[in-house]
Amino acid sequence: MELLQFTCLLLFISLRCLTGFGQQCGGNQWQCDDGACLPLSWHCDGNGDCLDGSDEMACPCPRGQVACMTGAPGCVSTSAVCDGQRQCSDGSDEFNCPENQGCLQGDWRCRNKICIPKDQYCNGANDCVDNSDETCDRCGPMALRCPGGACLTEEERCDGKLHCSDGSDEPSTCGRTCSEENGGCSHSCVDQPWGALCSCPKGHRLSAHGASCQDVDECSLPYGPCMHFCVNTPGSFYCHCRDGFQLQGTTYCYAKGNYTKFLTAKKGTIGFLNLKTLRFESIQSIGYDPLALAFDFSRSSFYWADDQGNIYKAKEQRSRILYHGQYGVRSLVCDWLTGQLYWTNQKTRSIHVGAADGSGFATVLAKSIDPLELVLLPIESLLFWINKGPGDKITLERSGMDGLKQESLVVLTAQSPQSLTLDVTARRLYWISDFKKSIETVRVDGSGRYSFREFFKRPAQSLAVFERWFYWTDEKGLWRSPQDRPNQKTFIQRTTLPVLEAYHERQQPKAQSACVKSGCQLCLPTLDLPAGFTCTCPDDKLLMADGSCEYPRFAYATSTTLNLFELKGKELIKTLLLTTDDVMESFDIDWTGDWVYWANSTGHVMRWSLNTGQSETVPTLRPACVVSVDQKMRNLYWLSCDEVCVGVTNMDQGYPRRLYQSGSEVKDVYLDWQRGRLYLLEAGWILSIRLPGGNPRKVLRLEGHVTGRIVLDLKSNTLLWNTEGDDLKIMSLLKSQTHLAGKEWNVPGSIMAAHAPLLVSLFNDVITVWDRRDRRRVHDVPVGPGIVRVIVALMDVKEVPPAQPVCTSPSVMCRGSTLCISQTQLCDTLRDCPDGFDEESCITKCPNGGEFRCKDRRTCIERSLVCDGRSHCHDGSDEVGCPTIAAPTSQTAPLKCRMGSRLCKDGRECVLHSHVCDGEVDCKDGSDEQDCGGSTIPLTTSYLAPTTTSPDILPAQPVCTSPSVMCRGSTLCISQTQLCDTLRDCPDGFDEESCITKCPNGGEFRCKDRRTCIERSLVCDGRSHCHDGSDEVGCQTIAAPTSQTAPLKCRMGSRLCKDGRECVLHSHVCDGEVDCKDGSDEQDCELLCKAGQFQCAHGKKCIDQQQVCDGKTQCQDRSDEMDCFKPTKSCSHRCDNNSRCIPETFLCDGERDCADGSDEEGCDSNKALPPVLPTLVQTCTSPSVMCRGSTLCISQTQLCDTLRDCPDGFDEESCITKCPNGGR
After folding, report:
1. Is the peptide bond before 810 cis (omega within 30 degrees of 0)?
2. Residue 65, C-beta contacts closer than 8 angstroms, at least 6 positions apart
3. pTM (two decimals)
4. Cβ distance 746 to 753 under 8 Å?
5. How many Å apart are CA 617 and CA 599, to the nearest integer?
6. Residue 934 — pLDDT band, cuts 50, 70, 90?
7. Where is the EGF-like domain positioned along the sequence (predicted)?
8. Start-to-end CA span in the chain (Å)
């Protein structure tokens, strides 16, 4: 689960890159509300191209019409655009039309509509085929041709007038002779009637001023001499090759490794034609001749399409159909980096991408295209195809592999192009021109246009290019020719090969692809996004946040049921997920954690496990009526039922906190967990809060009346709602602008959910799913009355097993019911459970006459445990009503701690040295954890009882018994409740010093006594951390949730008590003191040590005798390293084989201080105790409190209970009726 959560977290962090959020569009592009970029011409063209349909909203013209730029009539039909007739008075309906554009900028248009580069005009070659490019003025042998094609006579040269654009008709050598300074020429010079004519050696050309020679850059020629890379040098050049190729001669690059093969088809079989052996090697028998072939070299897979509408895959002599119904496939190619397929479909006029496993295909491009041949260059994320445009226009197009950034590379009109192929290593595209009988080529960036004119003598069928060779087939068979000597054609074999693909590992070079680790079901490399890819889905599926594709699924709830419906094509599948006796007001689903959350009618938040059916309660600071799950961080956001508090509950740590306190009313919350935003609807404003918390920012003022709900579409980053008249209104949070969906599109009822391109509405107990792109009604789903909410199902979900509700400690579940009651309701003589379960097994009389029955009638304890300062009854009744006068103490007999323990600062109790500075408070005054400072406890004997003698009787000193406190400088005792109660009870005001008015950290809880601040997570955790216990007062009867599947875990160095309720340090186990409430830490301990072992003085631990006095402490009380000295004559008592000396006062004191027990042997049980004088001050023993001005002791439960128990009403003073801060 942690791996899944981590994977989802990585996916959710990269989602902004995957979906296009935050990207900037170019000047000729239009940005959708979801951030995607489209060609500007697609905006308001009558067809929805954005997933959310936003390109067809707020348009000046109705659907089916486009706007004129400035002229009348304002709007014209889309069918009138580029029809050759002007409907707009400004003619804008005929602007930028393909047939009007003719050729690309930099081209010259022939009479037959063929486009050629301008530098081929009047170059002496028949590039247009009809010779229209050479209808120029004829130049004689002494004439000059200007760059623009004009021909100058000999008299026009050096006539003092500039005729050529480059000034070549007026060179600096006009009127000069070669006999004088070589006529000004840098190299050769020939005298002419107009002056000196300069010439240059090979590799150089004459400059425009006609005197000096410049280097010819052979590498910049349209079709340079090098196959791969060219480096220009003065007067020459040199070539080098890509990896995997070697240079032969000066210009050729030959592939290393295997011989070249051709993938082709022959007589119902797909196979290889080996160019070395000229043998055909069969791969797979097929039923129909292939229309297109493709291969994946690294995966040893082969693909083909036939005229029956099937696309096949073959691997390891096994074949299967990947896709059915693909009639009209013209070209099929493989993205060898991802294994995905691309193909063109002439029937649907579209380009598609499909998964190699046949799991689904999607449309890449289907707008304003009619694709023929198709090739890919995945290592540069590029897609190329020959496209039929309007009229007779044909172009060579290029785009990213996601279909974006489309542009025309070459206009091929009137050329009859076919058999587009790609030389991957040379980065050149090649195709056959049937009209020109030529092979045409251009670089993948659009430069380097070149034509191998009159190459074919008869029509060619297919073309392949690899290394330095052209390969093609015609009616005679297979041929080849070197590219640098195209006239040297060689016949290879008489065969009919309608399809020809060069099969070599260098045709599919290895490279990194951003799609490999994308997690997408269908991944499209892109040129725009920083991530380098975008995810897409089949047309009938939705893209999920993790990149997967799912059929549209929506979960909806009534007050007692949770349901799911799925649109699987035209099929509707409805599923009942769960039923509950609770009343759901709002719900959401944690799709990665498999929990269903809902708020019920009482404001309690519950959650059910989709895996186990277990139910739990979720703590919130206030009753909550709206819930929403953060799918990334797994937190639950909620809105209180009083609509003033917005908070979040951390589900990992189980504590809630407040995010925002409203000054008015928050009507709803909208959680954008993908982008870390929380939106609130407050007082007619949409507010935005950045997560995990911050100050709200106003985003939008809602105008007009909102009908039904406002919903957030995470996919398109928009808010949607209905206004009066069922007009759909949409706010783009990316653009911070609002627009109407269109007056002609009314969505009746309330908007319930949205996930582009789908929209869900509810009207008359029917859920309707709409497609926002074309505003089409996709499906109507009857659901019945009482729909609470509809959400998009982000992942697959199964039917939930019957829920097993649980109550979390300290609550108890009634038998045969889901009702939870407090433990105080057990055995209270009132029937709280329906079947009276809470009053069963109650004790009316203890079985042993000497025992004490707890007030809750559930337990009997030994009488000796009553009023011992520690509660043993569940309700603490064994410590209530204890004697008002504490046991007498005398200054002559201070509390003595036995060996291994030390006295707390208040002198009231002893703790083990091993419990000092161990991170847990054992002294009531906390002194065992004070002054730790990281230092070790010195091994001294200063903690032993004093051996000095005292007078027999000393004047008694007044003391106050806990929980009372003595005022400074007086003998007055006050209750702890009088501390920091704003009343001055001590003469010097000591009781109101060091009081906390405000916690230093805003998220902390201030105890009621104003003496301590604790973390908010410690409030109502079942254990009191405030001195007055106020952090456990007023808690809900149902505690914070704990899962039966997640028992309490102890940190390292601790272990779990048997009751599973708490942890104790390993060092506290078998140390002689009970730390677990069930006493299990002192059970199953060894009572006696074996021979050769030493028993620690305090507790029951045994260690090896050799470890005694070895300088290392093994006993927790350090008794194994104490008194490690030779006994002297002054020693009062030696024990433990003379290895220990103890004071005389330790003899016969009722405690065993020697391991061998010799200090308690031979003692007189009737030995008189030293005289003790009673104290002069009467005190109350904890937890009782003494009434002011009297000796009456009352229980703390009698304080502020509205009943006057003390004579002067002291117990009802300083009671708080209302907290000053509303949040506490």
Report:
1. yes
2. 46, 75, 76, 77, 78
3. 0.60
4. no
5. 10
6. very low
7. 215-254
8. 37
